[in-house]
Each structure stands twice: as structure tokens, then as C-alpha cells.
Amino acid sequence: MKDQQACRTSWCIIFIMVIFLHSLDSFAQIGLLREKIEKIVVREDATVGVGIMNLETGDTIIINGKKRFPMQSVYKFPLALAVLNQIDQGKLSLDQKIHLKKADMLPNTWSPLSKKYPDGDVDIALSEILSLTVSQSDNSGCDILFRLLGGTHPVNSYIHELVGDGIAIVSTEEEMHRDWDVQFKNWSTPGAMLQLLDIFYNGKMLSHESTGFLWNVLTETTTGPRRIKGLLPSGTKVAHKTGSSGSNKDGLTAANNDVGIVTLPNGKHFAIVVFVSNSTKDEKVTDNIIAEISKTTWNFFISSK
Fold it and tell me: Which residues pair with 63 in a beta bridge?
């Protein structure tokens, strides 16, 4: 009996040591990835915030994690979560028709809806408005959804329930379009956005149906093809949302962003957040910063055992 107990104790010790050594190895490996990403970040004449998470193990890298980065259209991802939450509660339906007025069609902004229905006076399914808002970054659709939910405040409150106060959503697209400085009121830290992606991926906030709907819409995103997806192998599945400020009269870009979830060839996933701010370079250069960080992360997880 004593020999059996000693044997069990020995195996327990060995098991704990194996787990401990594995954890040390994992920590060391993720540290190497951090070093590679930091080399990309420090060489750029911009403020860059990064969040990386292995969605199977939870291993995480966050760089410039306390800084508040203007989200621009990235905030359409949390907006979509808030809309789908209302659908899950039975307060809205993807099939319901939303009547669009001429006043809903924002002028002088990116909006496939406004281009298609410049005079409004049309009924559109909520699912179509939501899809265009996320996958094509429709600004008119964005503000229609905010009005449907009662403004930015309910969306901000819902997101705070999920990830705390690391994200702020207080202004509409129309308000941002009128004043360059307003965009800085809609901000996120890299860590908070990374946490939101993790919660979404693990199906902790929405129904299975709503999660699947948004996953498909994010995967169909047409904006920012040179960002997270830019240097990845053709056909790589990326569910993501971009955000862009353009440049002001002084040539300064406030936001060139992409956040999302990448599917690896082995079926595993990593979440990635890259916010690029305060750059005087053109969009091709800032897109490439995001693409390099994404490809470096991809290479790391492909080569990791």
C-alpha cells in the first residue's frame, strides 16, 4: 500500500513538473514573439498599439496597452455586438424592416446605402443594414443602428458590462465627420479590444445563431485588404473590422486600424489588434505595419509546436 501511495505521489510530482516546464517553455516562446513585434513597433514613426492572443491557450501579448487609440470604424464591431444582443433578447429581429428616410442617408461620406438609396423612402431588412455596416463599413448604416438602439450610450454601457471601461463609444459617424477631434472620443485600449474578441470567439455573449451571423459578416469584410490579410497566404480566413481616419490638413493620420481573428491551417485561431496612430506616412505604409505584425504572428504560430 505504501509503495502504491509513493508511486502515485511520484507520478503527481512528475505531472506537475511537466506542466510547469511546459508553461515556462510557452512563456519563453511568446516572449520571443513579443520581441519580434516590438522591433517592428519601435522602428515606426507612429504610435502603435498591439494585442495578440492565442485563443486556444490564452497566451497574450499587449504592447502600449494603456494608451487610448481612436477606433474610427472599428467601433462598428462592438456596435454589431450590441445590436445582436438586442436580437437575442427578442427586442429586434434580423428580418424586421427598417424604414430609411432621406435624412438617414449621410452626405459626403462612405456609404453604399446612401449611394444606392440617396432619397431614402425605402424599407431594408435589419440584417442587410448590419451586414453593410460591418463588412463594408457603411457610415449611414452605422448611425441608423445607433438610432435604433437609442444612441451611443446604450452601446457604451453594454460594452462596459463585457470588458470594463477600456473602450469608449460616445459619438456617431455624423459627429466624427463634422469635426476631426471628435474621433478621439471613441477610443479603445489594445487589451480591451482583444478581450472583446476573445469573448466573442468563445461564444460567451451572444447566441450560437448571432455569433455565427457576425462571424460570417466579419469574414466578408472588404475594407483593409492590405492590413491583417495583406501578407498572409491567399485564402486565409480572417474575421476582422477595420477603421481609418484618413489624413488631416497637416498630413497626420489619427487612425489606421484592423482587429480580428485569424484561422490557422491547423484549425486553431489567434486574435489580433493593431492600432496605428499619429503617423505622417501614407496609408500604404501604415497598412504594411499591420500586415507585418500579422505575418510575424502567423509565422510564430505556424512554427510553434
Answer: 50
Q: CA 72 to CA 286: how far, in whole Å?
A: 15
CB distance 77 to 303 below 8 Å: no
Q: What pTM was estimated for this model as a whole?
A: 0.90
Task: Taking residues 279-291, report their average pLDDT.
Answer: 96
User: Does the residue 266 lie in any domain?
Assistant: yes
Is 140 among the residues known to form the active site?
no
Range of the domain at 270: 42-303
- The catalytic position among 114, 173, 244, 245 is 173
Candidates 301, 291, 286, 273; CA nearest to 225 is 291
Is there a contact between 241 and 273 (Cβ–Cβ < 8 Å)? no
Active site residue 173: yes
Q: What is the CATH number of the domain that holds 119?
A: 3.40.710.10
| Total residue length of the chain | 305
- pLDDT tens across 186-201, in order? 999 999 999 999 999 9
DSSP E strand stretches across 156-299: 167-168, 187-188, 238-244, 256-263, 269-277
The CA distances from residue 276 to 34, 135, 160, 253, 287, in Å, are 17, 21, 23, 9, 9
The answer to whether residue 211 is domain-embedded is yes
Helices 126-135 and 208-219 sit at what angle, rounded to 10 degrees?
Answer: 50
Question: Maximum distance among all alpha carbons in the chain?
Answer: 86
Domain count, the chain: 1
Q: What is the pLDDT of residue 5?
A: 53
The per-residue pLDDT for range 222-238, each reduced to its tens digit, is 999 999 999 999 999 99
The per-residue pLDDT for 28 is 58
Using DSSP's 3-state secondary structure scheme, residue 274 falls into: strand
Distance CA 183, CA 265 (A): 37
Which listed residue (73, 111, 114, 188) is catalytic?
A: 73
